[in-house]
């Protein structure tokens, strides 16, 4: 996109940032694009609960959200390549031609960075998945020019790709882009949006301010499970929290779009759940998700991947209160 005629962001170049720099107009009545990062459930013997997983994905579709598979919520960093392919097959079966997002993840693989990502993208496409590019430790330390150039090579010729900036409280391979990198990312036409998981609403507000002026159609997909009201300011979302109850998220989105004041009570109840589930240590939210979905009778056990962090034994009690507040 041509940029010569576009005004530059007044808050990019360093210098103090004030609250007035970050005030964005709320957008009631806006239709929201919602995506849910699906939890991978397990049977009592530790095998993947395949039938239940397909049912979960179908529930996400039925709610009007887009499922995202092989994400952090689906233990993509812990699965074998064969397990990731098995997940893609299940997602393809549930999707029946509908769009789903799937993680392109290359850690622990040998080879050139671009070639590895391109291979992942081709594999995802063969099962009908829209790729979202997980960051790699290989990307750490690159200059903004080098990093944006790498993404441009990875995305070249693709119909649709999503980026993903991930805070290191989630995973060591993640990184939050500088504003210069984000500005360069906006110049990649194949990149239609990016998930932002800093858990920092100030950083995300600055993303939105830049997006609004430089490429308004670019989707900022909030990954802030501790600030899900970012949708009020123009973010869409791709949330692990949305897998706890896709229907309740869809209901919240519809209330916002219609200007219904009941939005606030439901949004507060969902945020309460998010604050409980995504407390430190953050990666253990997957055990919270498994416990919650097991409480609802939606998955056979509250087991997580054996290498995933777990919550204390009293997690079930506090999540029962969250369930009650949501009326589930």
Give a brief outline of the structure.
By secondary structure, the chain is α/β, with parallel strands linked by helices. Helices cover 40% and strands 12% of the residues.
Plain-language structure description:
The chain has 328 residues and is α/β, with parallel strands linked by helices. 40% of the residues lie in helices and 12% in strands. It contains eleven helices and eight strands. It has an eight-stranded parallel beta sheet with strand order 4-3-2-1-8-7-6-5. Residues 1-13 have low confidence and may be disordered.
Write the layout of secondary structure elements.
Elements: H1 19-22, E1 34-37, H2 50-62, E2 66-69, H3 81-95, E3 100-104, H4 113-126, E4 129-133, H5 144-155, E5 161-166, H6 179-185, E6 191-197, H7 201-214, E7 219-222, E8 236-239, H8 246-258, H9 262-277, H10 285-295, H11 315-326
Parallel strand pairs: 1-2, 1-8, 2-3, 3-4, 5-6, 6-7, 7-8
From the structure above, extract its key features.
eight-stranded parallel beta sheet; 328 residues; globular; alpha/beta; single chain; 8 strands
Mean pLDDT value = 93
* Poorly predicted residue ranges: 1-13
Q: Please write the string of helix (H) and strand (E) elements.
A: HEHEHEHEHEHEHEEHHHH
Which word captures the global form? globular
| Major sheet strand order | 4-3-2-1-8-7-6-5
The DSSP helix count reads 11
Which structural class fits the helix and strand makeup?
A: alpha/beta
């Amino acid at each position: 996109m041509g940029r010569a005629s576009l005004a530059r962001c007044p808050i990019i170049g360093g210098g103090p940032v004030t609250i007035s720099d970050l005030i964005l107009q709320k957008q009631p009545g806006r239709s929201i694009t919602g995506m849910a990062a699906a939890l991978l459930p397990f049977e009592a013997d530790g095998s993947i609960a395949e039938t239940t997983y397909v049912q979960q994905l179908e529930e996400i579709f039925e709610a009007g959200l887009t499922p995202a598979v092989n994400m952090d919520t689906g233990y993509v960093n812990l699965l074998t390549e064969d397990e990731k392919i098995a997940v893609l097959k299940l997602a393809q079966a549930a999707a029946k031609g509908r769009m789903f997002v799937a993680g392109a993840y290359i850690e622990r693989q040998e080879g050139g960075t671009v070639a590895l990502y391109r291979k992942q993208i081709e594999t995802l496409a063969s099962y009908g998945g829209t790729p979202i590019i997980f960051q790699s430790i290989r990307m750490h330390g690159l200059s903004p020019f080098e990093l944006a150039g790498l993404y441009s090579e990875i995305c070249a010729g693709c119909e649709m790709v999503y980026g993903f900036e991930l805070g290191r409280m989630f995973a060591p391979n993640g990184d939050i882009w500088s504003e210069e990198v984000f500005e360069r990312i906006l110049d990649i036409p194949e990149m239609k949006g990016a998930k932002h998981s800093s858990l920092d609403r100030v950083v995300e507000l600055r993303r939105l301010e830049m997006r609004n002026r430089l490429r308004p159609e670019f989707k900022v997909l909030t990954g802030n499970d501790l600030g899900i009201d970012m949708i009020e300011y123009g973010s869409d979302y791709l949330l692990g929290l949305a897998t706890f109850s896709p229907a309740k998220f869809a209901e919240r989105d519809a209330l916002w779009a219609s200007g219904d004041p009941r939005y606030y009570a439901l949004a507060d109840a969902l945020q309460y759940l998010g604050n409980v589930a995504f407390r430190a240590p953050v990666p253990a939210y997957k055990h919270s998700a498994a416990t919650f979905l097991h409480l609802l009778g939606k998955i056979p056990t509250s087991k997580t991947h054996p290498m995933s962090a777990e919550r204390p034994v009293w997690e079930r009690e506090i999540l029962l209160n969250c369930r009650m507040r949501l009326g589930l």
